[in-house]
Amino acid sequence: MAFKGNVVLITGAGSGMGQLAAWRLAAGGAKVAALDINEKGLAQTAEGKPGIKAYVVDVTDAEAVNRVVAQAEQDLGPFDRVINAAAIMPFGKLLEQPTEQIRRLMDINYGGLVNVSKATLPGMLKRGKGDFVSFSSMLGQMPTLFTGAYAATKFAVSCYTEVLYHENRDQGVRFVCVCPPAVKTPLLQQAVDTVWPKILDANPPIKPEEVLDALEVSLEKGEFWCLPGKGTRIGYIMRRLLPNAVWKEVHKAEGC
Ligand SMILES: NC(=O)c1ccc[n+]([C@@H]2O[C@H](COP(=O)([O-])OP(=O)(O)OC[C@H]3O[C@@H](n4cnc5c(N)ncnc54)[C@H](O)[C@@H]3O)[C@@H](O)[C@H]2O)c1
């Protein structure tokens, strides 16, 4: 593992990849501040793990995020790594998806990252060390039908993190933007419960372990874009070079 520090803050730590990252890092000896809106999930994350301290917070609430970050820093010490994994993923045809839901998606998936970066990154930059990790998605590189509202949040996450990196590079903090394809976590159920784009059946969901392993490799190699999973890098390149060919495949898969 590329992690050499002591204290980690993780949002979305009550489920899926955030939870797994908390368990792995705590098992390696780190002190983990686990943040999530889901109290039950957080309790499961921290149960029997003295290295993990749970903080219930809604990442869309900037003041609450500032409060919790200050508290966690007081409890555990300054952060050596921050992982932004909190998100929701309802899908839908854009004109049919409730406007409130589209706004909420942006508030959580993008606004949460903004709030957490403002609360944590200045301290890391001042200390001249640390890892700042954002979870975007392949959908934050390559949109498909019925994923527009979620994909827009992940394009925002990718762009924000990329610019954040370039504005603060060479100051000792490592930045990584993780863009996984579908991953086997509870998040997928939100898509199943709304609309499941057929193109996502082209490849089975990968394991969360594979994504976290790829993240460590990216950190170690100093690669900003982390593209886990078979074919992800090719998809990333195809979208840039041949966007119309990608859309053709998407329409073919959906039969429209
Ligand atoms: N699972 C996938 O297929 C997939 C693919 C690509 C990218 N991602 C991204 O990876 C990250 C982790 O996803 P996951 O699959 O582990 O999801 P998950 O649903 O298992 O976990 C997400 C966590 O975020 C929390 N959360 C939601 N809203 C919140 C809020 N307002 N404040 C605080 N916490 C909140 C949830 O309670 C949940 O515990 C997300 O950013 C997701 O968009 C996931």
Automatic annotation (TrEMBL):
Species this chain originates from: Sterolibacterium denitrificans
Pfam families: adh_short
Protein family according to the UniProt entry: Belongs to the short-chain dehydrogenases/reductases (SDR) family.
Alphabetical UniProt keywords: Oxidoreductase
Protein name: Oxidoreductase, short-chain dehydrogenase/reductase family protein
Top-rank taxon, per record: Bacteria
GO function terms (MF aspect): oxidoreductase activity
InterPro entries to which the protein is assigned, alphabetical: NAD(P)-bd_dom_sf, SDR_fam
Keyword Ligase: no
Lineage per the UniProt record: Bacteria, Pseudomonadati, Pseudomonadota, Betaproteobacteria, Nitrosomonadales
GO cellular component, one term: membrane
